[in-house]
Amino acid sequence: MFQEIIMPRRSGILPTVHTLLTWLCWLAMCSMAAAQPASPAALSESARTYLEGVISLAQANSINRSQIDWPGVRREALSRAAGAQDEAGTHPAVQWLVSALGDRHSAFLDPAALKALPARSAAVSGKPEARLLHDRFGFVLVPTFGSPVQASIDQFATDLHGAIGSVEASHPCGWVVDLRSNGGGNMWPMLAGVGPIIGTGRLGSFQDPDGRGATWSYQAGEAKTDSRTAAKTLRTPVTLHGEMPPVAVLIGSTTASSGEAIAIAFRGRASTRLFGAHTKGLTTSNRVFPLSDGSLLNLATAAFADRTGASYRDGVIPDEVWDASSDLAKDSLPITWLAAQQGCVADRP
């Protein structure tokens, strides 16, 4: 190259001009190369395999899988993971992918988040409460409950059953089921616990984008998904003295996920009305996929549906809009409705 640029002095002006132009071109190319950003470091093979696997799981199972530009999502996720040399290096890209699914309910939990999960679940889980309201109505609070441990699941169902049983001894003419503070967790002990009030049989289902899914039901102290018992009471199941007493279900903007599932389980039940505000809108069932580095991909895969088959993709709308922060005074909307129902009108003077 240098022999082409350096010309003999005797060749005159033309070689000198040629030399100058060649140098200028070479310098320009060097300058252009210097101005261009360096190419991002490539993913390691293990990092690429991990991220591609997560993308494939989402593409095969996400409830929104038919609405997503998967080639574009794959390009963006791989770009965001540029330079990753191991699985952990791709985690920010996986978090982005989860948000790109657009269902607001899917989640990615790395090993550190999983380690903290039991303490977090215990911190938000509440205790069932029940009492007699205005000497006529049963009141039961169904709180958030998040434990995945079967013994704890069955104990929560038993505690909720027992709380209802203690009030049922007073023979209330109707019930208030309070889901306003229920932020979700594990729906099965909630369903088993409040089953005596909801009633027996099929109560709802999960519906995937292809119309397939499992049913929810309650029978004799057990909550089931299809034929599998997911939660059960550890004591003799409670039976209400009235076959189908009226029920006012309270919901609000913080009622979410499993709390919404319980509200939906009441839809289609006779003598039942929902009061409050539009719920949070996390009305999907999630499936957990363990990943090779100990993380979990928790994907929303199906929508909640009530016993009639109606699907809920954007939360639960109440039958009666009511200030969900209000108390349950005698003249409140839920109480006046209950008092006007058959079995309560002539119940007491």
How would you portray this structure in words?
This protein is α/β, with parallel strands linked by helices. The chain has 10 helices and 14 strands. It has helices at about 1-5, 15-35, 45-60, 70-80, 90-100, 110-125, 150-170, 185-200, 260-265, 335-340, and strands at about 105-110, 130-135, 135-140, 175-180, 200-205, 215-220, 220-225, 230, 245-250, 270-275, 285-290, 295-305, 310, 320. The strands form 2 sheets. Strands 1, 5, 6, 7, 8, 11, 12 and 13 form an 8-stranded antiparallel β-sheet that branches. The longest helix is centred in the first third of the chain and has 23 residues, at about 15-35. It is elongated. Mean pLDDT is about 90; it is low at about 1-40.
Write the layout of secondary structure elements.
Blueprint: H1 2-5, H2 13-35, H3 45-61, H4 70-80, H5 91-100, E1 107-109, H6 111-124, E2 129-133, E3 137-141, H7 150-168, E4 174-178, H8 187-198, E5 201-207, E6 215-219, E7 222-225, E8 228-232, E9 247-251, H9 258-266, E10 272-276, E11 284-290, E12 296-306, E13 311-312, E14 320-321, H10 333-339
Parallel strand pairs: 3-4, 4-9, 9-10, 10-14
Antiparallel strand pairs: 1-12, 2-3, 5-6, 5-12, 6-7, 7-8, 11-12, 12-13
Helix pairs in contact: 3-4, 3-5, 4-5, 7-8, 8-9
